[in-house]
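User:
Hi there, any thoughts?
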Amino acid sequence: MMGGPGGPPPDLANAEIVDYQPLEGDGKLRLKLKDGSIIEVRLEIMNILRAGNDANTGLPTYIVQSAPLVRLVECPKELRKTPLRPGAKEGKSIPGFG
């Protein structure tokens, strides 16, 4: 974890959790890859912390704890392989998000 350019990392000892609410959209991004696959990516926000103020600008410093969630929406048949585990059924959907 780094601070601003040339600055020290933020002090997390006194950081406090800040509540939030999304302003617009559902946060999903659909991407078409060069191999023809389509994936959906969403950033899951766990916490937002306010960790004091930047010494150079005086602006508040925020730390965002998050995890990317990736779901395969579709892929070309030529990229698919036979499942290695017995009992796996062709076309059986795997739960995703949204």
Notes: The two ends are 30 Å apart (CA to CA). Residues 24 and 42 are 14 Å apart (CA to CA). Residues 16-75 form one domain. DSSP finds no helices and four strands in the chain.
